[in-house]
Each structure stands twice: as structure tokens, then as C-alpha cells.
Specification:
about 190 residues, mainly alpha, three-stranded antiparallel sheet, 3 strands, about 10% strand, globular
Length: about 190
């Protein structure tokens, strides 16, 4: 098992902490009014996509042979190292969307992908008569579908929840929504 990140990440010292951060970002993003201009939702969406993608790095650093074995059994395909794990993760449409958003947000340009995503803000008229202001959605286009970023992040969270439980790094009750608050600072390092 890799050591914790040497005190450089504030309260995020374990993969479950990063998962909690992802859910926290998703909650904050969804709490911003759709009537707002969208800049706050955009920043929160970018942060959540980055966190969703970086779950891959944290899991690779945490995985031991037993975790790969359990994941292989759970996924019904052989996954025995980080390279294979990353490839398998990118087969998940929603995590792949997050990866492209995260890479573009950090590096500006994304290398060619088998399917490219694009993002855009979309304003629609409110269907509620007492709310004449338009609603501002953040959409992600992938192949022939356009999906709200809220759903993209939500499905990425569901994927990571399955991975954490499937590898034995978390029990079902530890990753249910909403996440239970962290009660200790010494994480279960010997899982």
C-alpha cells in the first residue's frame, strides 16, 4: 500500500476522503440555482470532474494484489495492474467524460480520444410562470447524446461506489449516499 500523501492534501488522506470530496462537490454544484449565471456551477462542475477522474490515481496507489483480484472477479474481466485498471475505467462513459473535462481543465488541450466530449452552457426558458428567468444548464455532449453535468458526475459517483465496494476498500454503508461523516483521523489503512 502506498503511504499517505505526506500531509500535502489537508483532510484528504485516503481514497474514501477523496470520494467524500467528490460527493461534496456534486452536492454543492447541484445546490447552485439554475437561475444563476452559471459561473459557480461551472467551477464546481470542473472541480467535480477533476476529482472523479483523480479517483483513478488514488485507487491505483492504494490497490494491492487482493484488490485487483476482487475487482477482476466483480467486473468479470482480468484486471491485475494499474494500466489495465485505467483502460477499464475509461470504458465507463461517465468517468471518460470526466477525464476529458479534467484533462482539458488542467492542460488546456486533450489528445485525440476514441470519442470526444464537448461542454456548453445551455439556457432554456423556465417552464414555471412565476419564474420568468431562464434556467442555465451545463451540458456535456458525447457521441450522439447530450447529458447534464449533474448526471455525468452522479453516474461517475455510482461507478466509483461500485469499485470501492467491489475491491473491498469500502463497505456498502461507508459509501452510501449521503456519505456518513468521517469520525476518525486514523483511517482504516489495513483494509
Amino acid at each position: 500500500m502506498a503511504p499517505p500523501p505526506s500531509g500535502k492534501t489537508f483532510e484528504v488522506v485516503d481514497v474514501l476522503d477523496l470520494f467524500r470530496k467528490l460527493e461534496w462537490e456534486w452536492d454543492r454544484m447541484r445546490a447552485v440555482s439554475l437561475h444563476d449565471s452559471g459561473i459557480e456551477r461551472s467551477y464546481l462542475a470542473l472541480n467535480a470532474a477533476m476529482t472523479a477522474w483523480h479517483m483513478t490515481d488514488w485507487l491505483c496507489a492504494r490497490f494491492e494484489a487482493e484488490h485487483y483480484k476482487r475487482l477482476s472477479s466483480h467486473a468479470s474481466i482480468p484486471i491485475d495492474n494499474c494500466k489495465v485498471f485505467r483502460k477499464w475505467v475509461l470504458e465507463n462513459r461517465f468517468v471518460s467524460m470526466c477525464e476529458q473535462i479534467a484533462v482539458a481543465g488542467k492542460h488546456f488541450q486533450v489528445d485525440v480520444r476514441p470519442h470526444a466530449v464537448t461542454t456548453k452552457a445551455q439556457s432554456i426558458d423556465s417552464p414555471f410562470p412565476k419564474s420568468p428567468r431562464p434556467l442555465n444548464y451545463l451540458m456535456v455532449k458525447d457521441q450522439d447524446a447530450v447529458v447534464p453535468i449533474d448526471a455525468v458526475i452522479g453516474f461517475a459517483i455510482a461507478f466509483w461506489r461500485m469499485v470501492l465496494v467491489g475491491t473491498g476498500l469500502a463497505e456498502e454503508h461507508e459509501v452510501k449516499y449521503p456519505m456518513p461523516p468521517r469520525t476518525d483521523t486514523a483511517h482504516k489503512a489495513n483494509r
